[in-house]
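User: Please fill in residues for this 459-position structure.
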């Protein structure tokens, strides 16, 4: 205990939060997550200036209950539906303090959270949530309340949130710091706006606070005996009949409005059949039979976004080296496949994406080689088995019809093996098959019995 000494933490929890070891881990996590600068313009790469000489001053201010977080910087991120998501980017020092708080608060609150909650929790993720949803549908819960909360992170009620925090947290200093972050305000275009509600997305503390706020909602659904899966503010509730689905939808909307002070987006909230519904970027395409899990695929909008990103990366006028382009392309494809690997997309990749990407790369190479002599030289190098006659008959070294030539004509000289072996493109289909097989094996181990294989595909 402090006992009048402003340099000693008030409680054991506060002492752990401000300990050198905990702050050191927080700094590493903030540095690894990177992110943009806050309103003070200090970048993550300059984080050490805060954690050496300046840190003692910040620590004293926290212990004396005089530390005031700086307002967050408002940033707009485009959404798939054409709207924008509002993020609040804290200054680097505030990200460090928030991260240090989360590291000591997460173990404290974790036991209070629901088993049906999967977002922002250690050892859990989106794939676990999707797998659980598939399991419910395979068990016969074939109708779903697809619930959409309207601007959840921007409308969290501060008084109610702090009431939920107080049920578990006794440390008044950390409690005060949480409230200070909630009230720190927003800077947008040089103008300050006070924050009387909401917990802005963008800081390390916000995900934990969102789970604290929605835990009473989880407990209410559990008491009612519902089958549900929640990931952050995305929640699907599963029922066995259309009538029960509509009744649950109406009841839950009332509870969220009256008890949780949250608004439901009525245009996006549905009571519907599970097949065709979407959750966390996946669309469910079967219920599952005989103990097998239902099948899923990436949501159509996510596929469109994936293809658009490929177009951007492989744009023939980018002017970067082919090796740098390949590094960027491979990283993006790996990340996308790792997320959607449990989806059934073999046919989609094999028939559409792989040939299309190879053609875009051949187009990029043709543009990059530019001169006829260079083009002829590279074609001979990449495909030495082609006869001299075929090379001479290929009278297009001077042509700039890039997309036209990148089809069947250049395919004979720049085969798939050359693109993979010579330039290092990921073997996309093999990578997906391996990742998908691991997901199916995990499903078999978790749920028992045979699981679905790569045999069925969507067109």
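Assistant: Residues filled in for all 459 positions:
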């Amino acid at each position: 205990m402090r006992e009048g000494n402003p340099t000693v933490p008030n409680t054991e929890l506060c002492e752990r939060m401000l300990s050198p070891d905990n702050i050191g881990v927080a700094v590493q996590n903030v540095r690894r997550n990177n992110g943009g600068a806050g309103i003070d313009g200090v970048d993550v790469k300059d984080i050490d200036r805060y954690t050496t000489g300046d840190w003692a001053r910040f620590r004293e201010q926290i212990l004396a209950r005089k530390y005031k977080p700086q307002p967050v910087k408002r940033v707009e991120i485009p959404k798939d539906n054409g709207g924008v998501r509002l993020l609040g980017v804290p200054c680097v020092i505030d990200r460090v303090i928030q991260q240090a708080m989360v590291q000591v608060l997460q173990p404290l609150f974790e036991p209070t959270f629901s088993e049906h909650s999967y977002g922002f929790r250690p050892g859990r993720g989106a794939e676990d949530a999707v797998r659980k949803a598939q399991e419910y549908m395979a068990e016969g819960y074939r109708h779903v309340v697809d619930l959409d909360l309207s601007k959840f992170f921007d409308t969290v009620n501060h008084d109610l949130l702090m009431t939920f925090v107080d049920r578990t947290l006794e440390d008044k200093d950390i409690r005060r710091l949480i409230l200070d972050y909630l009230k720190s305000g927003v800077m947008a275009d040089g103008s300050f706006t006070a924050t009387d509600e909401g917990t802005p997305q963008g800081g390390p503390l916000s995900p934990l606070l969102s789970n604290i706020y929605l835990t009473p909602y989880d407990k209410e659904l559990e008491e009612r005996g519902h089958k549900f899966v929640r990931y952050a503010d995305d929640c699907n509730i599963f029922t066995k009949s259309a009538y029960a689905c509509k009744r649950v939808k109406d009841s839950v909307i009332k509870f969220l409005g009256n008890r949780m002070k949250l608004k439901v987006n009525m245009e996006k909230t549905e009571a519907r059949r599970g097949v065709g519904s979407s959750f966390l970027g996946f669309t469910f395409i079967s219920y599952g039979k005989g103990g097998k899990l239902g099948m899923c695929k990436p949501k159509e909008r996510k596929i469109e976004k994936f293809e658009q990103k490929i177009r951007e990366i492989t744009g023939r006028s980018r002017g970067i080296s082919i090796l740098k382009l390949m590094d960027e392309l491979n990283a993006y494809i790996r990340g996308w496949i790792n997320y959607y690997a449990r989806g059934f997309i073999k046919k989609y990749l094999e028939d559409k994406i792989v040939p299309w990407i190879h053609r875009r790369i051949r187009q990029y190479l043709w543009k990059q080689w530019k001169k006829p002599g260079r083009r002829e030289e590279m074609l001979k190098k990449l495909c030495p088995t082609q006869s001299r006659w075929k090379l001479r008959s290929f009278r297009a070294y001077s042509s700039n019809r890039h997309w036209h030539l990148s089809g069947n004509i250049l395919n004979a000289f720049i085969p798939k093996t050359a693109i993979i072996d010579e330039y290092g493109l990921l073997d996309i289909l093999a990578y997906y098959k391996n990742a998908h097989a691991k997901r199916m094996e995990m499903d078999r181990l978790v749920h028992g019995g045979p699981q679905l294989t790569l045999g069925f595909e969507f067109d």
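For context: Residues 112 and 190 are 40 Å apart (CA to CA).
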